[in-house]
């Protein structure tokens, strides 16, 4: 991969930092009127999602990281790997380990399309779509007629995720859930 | 393809900018300071190892020997030659040029207000900077604090006694920096990351480390500690002005030029021709004076509450 100098650090650029692929979020040029110039850089570690601030001498460089995001359909899990298939017609498949899917486990559903981040061709992170539809497997019996809201109760979904739902929801209902806030949106 | 021809600043911002510049002009007229205009092109370059001048060539029409010229990074040298020639108090508002500097607060060509006051020391000049900045921003006079005190306040380190290792450890912890720097590099890094962003109310920082004197004289305090008679004004976490009780000693100036050249060589930067006329002017006699340079674009940013320099200049580098 090419090397990138601090003045080429743009939001979205993927670079290697301390052996991990990272995405540049912000890059601020800091230079006193008299004295050396620095770049204050905010990066997200793509393996663990953590955001760090780092400072470099202006002109220092980092190696680019071979990272790409692909739209992939979730096929099945075999107990060790979660398997995804490319949606671009190539039928290419990859298996993501638990670490890669850990942020997404609550929202995994077969045949749904996820964004899979590949580093040197191997999946390192999986992001769910903003909304997924999942079935309720366990909740207190619904209160008939109460569709006005007001009270809520917990409901366990097929993935194991627990979300707060209105009182009228029953086991077996399929719900639309916002994966960003883990909030109930409505019945699917 | 559409060409982006529009200015980066709004017309309203440019109107305010013009008003502020009129205020500045009135300020110096009232105080009977002479407005001057020195050349942007110079045969010599700035000596500061961390400034990179643009260069160009004068080519005689019809042929002949071309002459390398440098765009000034500040009008300091020729203004000092005017002072040595007996100009008395002078001020100038001009474009200056610094290669490589682009960022939220940097554009490679920017407007600098620079003025010199014979008979003033840096404390008296700080009073005048307060008056000018107060006129434009309506702000109160700045808090005055020494470099050592403000550094200790925000880092817990005493610049006179701490080791390079302590500075390095703090830079790693607070700035996520790993690498090698010289002592002034560590100080600059920590000052710009841990101190400067905290200086929200107007703050004049004076008594800089003697190693960062630039063109200021070095003074010795009651505890026999040396410091540079230099000050910087910070407002809203941003460096706004840099002033000196000016060095008048030609020999000392020549030594600093030579030291800058050595540092340039050590850093692997090209050596540039030094300003011999400045040294000659100092030899002939520069009156005791204090001088200051103030970033006008940043002053306008503060007056308008703008967060980026391109919001207060008509066309930034990306649109130049």
UniProtKB/TrEMBL annotation, chain B:
GO terms for biological process: lysyl-tRNA aminoacylation. The keyword ATP-binding applies. One of its GO terms (cellular component) is cytosol. InterPro entries: Aa-tRNA-synt_II (IPR004364), aa-tRNA-synth_II (IPR006195), aa-tRNA-synth_II/BPL/LPL (IPR045864), EpmA (IPR004525). GO terms for molecular function: ATP binding; lysine-tRNA ligase activity; tRNA binding. The keyword Nucleotide-binding applies. Pfam families: tRNA-synt_2. Residues 17-320 form the Aminoacyl-transfer RNA synthetases class-II family profile domain. Keywords: ATP-binding, Ligase, Nucleotide-binding. Homodimer. PANTHER family: ELONGATION FACTOR P--(R)-BETA-LYSINE LIGASE (PTHR42918:SF6), LYSYL-TRNA SYNTHETASE (PTHR42918). This is Aminoacyl-transfer RNA synthetases class-II family profile domain-containing protein.
């Amino acid at each position: 991969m090419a090397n990138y100098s601090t003045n080429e650090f743009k939001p979205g650029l993927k670079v290697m930092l301390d052996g991990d692929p990272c995405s540049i979020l912000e890059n601020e040029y800091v230079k006193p009127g008299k004295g050396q110039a620095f770049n204050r850089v905010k990066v997200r570690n793509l393996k663990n999602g953590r955001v760090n601030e780092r400072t470099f001498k202006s002109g220092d460089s980092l190696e680019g990281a071979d990272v790409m995001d692909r739209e992939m359909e979730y096929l099945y899990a075999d107990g060790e790997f979660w398997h995804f298939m490319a949606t671009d017609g190539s039928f290419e498949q990859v298996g993501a380990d638990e670490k890669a899917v850990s942020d997404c486990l609550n929202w995994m559903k077969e045949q749904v399309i996820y964004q899979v981040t590949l580093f040197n061709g191997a999946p390192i992170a999986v992001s769910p779509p903003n909304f997924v539809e999942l079935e309720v497997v366990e909740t207190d019996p619904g209160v008939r007629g109460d569709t006005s809201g007001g009270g809520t109760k917990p409901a366990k979904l097929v993935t194991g995720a627990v979300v707060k739902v209105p009182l009228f929801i029953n086991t077996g209902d399929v719900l639309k859930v916002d994966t960003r806030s883990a909030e109930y949106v409505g019945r699917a | 393809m559409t060409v982006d021809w529009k200015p980066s600043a709004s017309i309203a911002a440019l109107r305010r900018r013009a008003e502020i510049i009129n205020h500045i002009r009135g300020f110096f007229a009232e105080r009977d300071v002479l407005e001057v205009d020195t050349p942007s092109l110079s045969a010599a370059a700035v000596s500061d190892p961390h400034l990179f001048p643009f260069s160009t060539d004068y080519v005689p029409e019809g042929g002949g020997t071309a002459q390398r010229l440098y765009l000034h990074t500040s009008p300091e040298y020729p203004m000092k030659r005017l002072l040595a020639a007996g100009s008395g108090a002078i001020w100038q508002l001009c474009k200056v040029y610094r290669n490589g500097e682009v960022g939220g607060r940097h554009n490679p060509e920017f407007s600098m207000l620079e003025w010199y006051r014979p008979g003033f020391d840096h404390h008296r000049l700080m009073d005048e900077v307060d008056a000018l900045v107060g006129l434009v921003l309506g702000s109160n006079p700045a808090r005055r604090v020494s470099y050592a005190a403000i550094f200790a306040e925000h880092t817990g380190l005493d610049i006179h006694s701490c080791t390079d290792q302590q500075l390095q450890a703090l830079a790693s912890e607070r700035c996520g920096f790993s690498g090698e720097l010289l002592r002034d590099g560590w100080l600059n890094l920590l000052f710009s990351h841990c101190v400067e962003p905290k200086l929200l109310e107007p703050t004049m920082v004076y008594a800089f480390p003697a190693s960062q004197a630039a063109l200021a004289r070095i003074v010795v305090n009651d505890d026999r500690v040396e410091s540079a008679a230099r000050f910087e004004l910070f407002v809203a976490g941003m460096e706004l002005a840099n002033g000196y009780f000016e060095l008048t000693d030609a020999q000392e100036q020549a030594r600093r030029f030579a030291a800058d050249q050595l540092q340039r060589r050590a850093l692997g930067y090209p050596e540039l021709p030094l300003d011999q006329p400045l040294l000659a002017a100092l030899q002939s006699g520069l009156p005791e004076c204090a001088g200051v340079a103030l970033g006008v674009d940043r002053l306008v940013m503060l007056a308008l509450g703008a967060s980026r320099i391109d919001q207060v200049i008509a066309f930034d580098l990306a649109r130049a």
